[in-house]
Amino acid sequence: MDVHSYSSPEQVRVRHLDLDLTVHFDRKTLEGSCAVHFERMTDGDLVLDTRDLTIHSVDRADRFELGPVDPVLGAPLRITPAEGTDWVRVHYSTSPAASGLQWLDAPQTAGKRHPFLYTQSQAIHARSWIPLQDTPGVRVTFMAKITTPGGLRSVMGAAGGDGQFQMDQPVPSYLISLAAGDLAFCELGPRSGVHAEPSLLDAAAHEFADTEAMIAAVESMYGPYRWGRYDLLVLPPSFPFGGMENPRLTFTTPTILAGDRSLVSLVAHELAHSWSGNLVTNATWSDFWLNEGFTVYLERRILEKVFGAERAEMEAVLGRRELDREMAGLPERDTVLHLDLAGRDPDEGCTLVPYEKGALMLRTIEKSVGRERFDAFLHAYFDHFAFQSITTAEFLRYLRDELPNDVPVDEWIFQPGVPAGAAEPQSEALDNVEIPDAARWTTHHWLHFLRTKKDPDMGELDREFHFTETGNSEILAEWLHMAVQQNYQPAMPRLVQFLCSVGRRKFLKPLYAELMKTPDGAAYAREIYRRARPGYHPIAQNTIDAMVGKGGVGGQPGTGAGDRGPGAGV
Ligand code: BES
Ligand code: ZN
After folding, report:
1. Position in ligand 1 atom list of the atom nearest CA 347
2. Is 355 tagged catalytic?
3. Are 228 and 265 a contacting pair, CB within 8 Å?
4. pTM attached to this predicted model
5. How confident is the model at residue 348 (pLDDT cuts 50, 70, 90)?
6. CA 20 to 30 Å from 156, out of 43, 389, 432, 518?
7. pLDDT tens digits, one per residue of 329-343
8. Is 212 an active-site residue?
C-alpha cells in the first residue's frame, strides 16, 4: 500500500502507456494524449494520479471524474472504462506550473538562443505531466511520440530518437523522463554517450571519459547491464539535483563538470541505480533506502575498482562525516531507514540518512560476512528481484534466508541513529590535512580541509588558495557556506552570483539556511531569493519557499542591499 498514490492497482493495474505529446514552448504546456492499457485484477474503476492536469476527454470510457485536490497528492482521476475494453485514451494538457517540468527561457540555457524543457518525475511528479498510476509499485512499458517545434531535439530515457521512443522493459512511473532543447551528442564508448548543449559538449565528453570503465566494473561484480545503452544528458544549471537515474539516460547537473573528473562519483552513483533502483525498485517511498543505500554502496565499489581504494575510502569518510553533520539537525524519526511518510511529501524523506546510513549498514554486513559472500548475495539479489518493486520487509526476508549474519539489521532499519558496531571508514589521506599541499591535493582533500578547519582566517586562506574564484562547485559551495558563517564580505558577490545561477538543491539549502540564522542575513537571503527564484525549478522553489518565504510575495520590500552582503547594513 502506497500512501502517496490514489491508484488501486490491486483492482485495476496499468501495464502500458502510449503517449502522443506536443511541446509548446510558447504556452509552456505539453498537450496531447495518453493511451492507458490496463489489466483488471478484480472489479472496480481505473484510478490514475494527476496534478494540475487539464483533462479534455477520455475515449472508450463510460464516465470519468477528477476528484478533489490534495496539496501533496494532487487529484485522482477516476475512470469507468467502457464494457470489455482494456485501454482508454486520456486527452489532456499540462499546467505551466507543473511540478515535474521545468520550462527554461533561452537566457537560462548555455547557448542563450533556444528554450529548454526537461522533466523530473521522482518522487511523485510524473503525475503532473502524465495521468498514470504514480507509485513505484506499478511498472509499465511505454511508447511515445514527441513533437517539438523549430528543429529542437527531444530525448527520453527510452530507446529510439527523432521524436519516436519505446521502452520495452517495465519501469516505475518515477523513471519516465523527457527533455527537449538545442542538444548535441558525442559518443563515449560502444554503448555510451553524452547529450549536451553544443557549447558544453566537449567539456562533458572529457569529464565522462571513464563511463565505459565504470559500466564494466559493475558488470564484473553484479552481472550484465540490462538496459542496452547508457547515455548521459547534461542539463542547464537550474537542475535541482546532482543526477537522476532515468533508465538508459542519466540526467546530470553541469556543476559536476569540474574539468578534472573529480566529481564523477555522481556518474558512478546514477549508473549503479541501473541495478539498485531501476532493476530492483523500492515499492513505496518509505523503502527509499533500498534504492539509495544500495546505490551509494555500489557507487563506492565502482570508485574502488576504477580509481583505487584510496579514492573510494576518502569519499566514504566524507560521506560518514556529512551523515553525522546532517543527523545532528534532524528529528529522530527521520534518522531511521524505513521512513514514516504518511501525510508528508516524499521529498521530505530525501536526507543523507537513506543514502549514507543505508550504505553504512551494507558495509557493516559486508565486513561481517566477508566481501566474497556479500558480493555473491548482492548479485543473486539483483537477479532474483530483477524488474520487480520490493518492500523493506521483502528485503529482510531474503537477507535472513540467503545471508544469515550477526548485524542487528532491525535496529539499523527501524531505530534512530547509527547503531554500535557500525563499520568505520578510514582514510589515511584525509587524516593529515592540516597543512595544504596544493600541488598534490584533490577535491576530496580540500573539502575535508574546509570542513574540519577551526577558526579560519578567511582573508588569508583566500589570498593563498583563491577559494572565492574556484570553478569547482563542491569546493565553492563549502567555501561560501563558511563565508556566510564568518561574515566574510569579499565572497558575497560570488555568493549572489552562485545562488542566482545554480539551482542544485543540495547547494542552495545549506547556504540559505546559514543566511537565515541572523536578521541581517535573512534580509539578504530574501533579497537574493527574490532575484533567483524565477530561475529555480518548482521543486527547489518549494524547498526554499519553506525556508525563506516566497520571493516578492510577502517578502520584505527591496532594501537595495544588493551585493553588499549580510551585516553590511542597509
Ligand atoms: N534518485 C536520486 C535523486 C532524487 C532523489 C530525486 C529523490 C528526487 C527524489 C539520485 O540518484 C541521487 O541520489 N542524486 C544525488 C547524487 C548522488 C551522488 C548522491 C543528488 O542529486 O545529489
Ligand atoms: Zn541516487
Report:
1. 9
2. yes
3. no
4. 0.96
5. confident
6. 389
7. 999 999 999 999 999
8. no
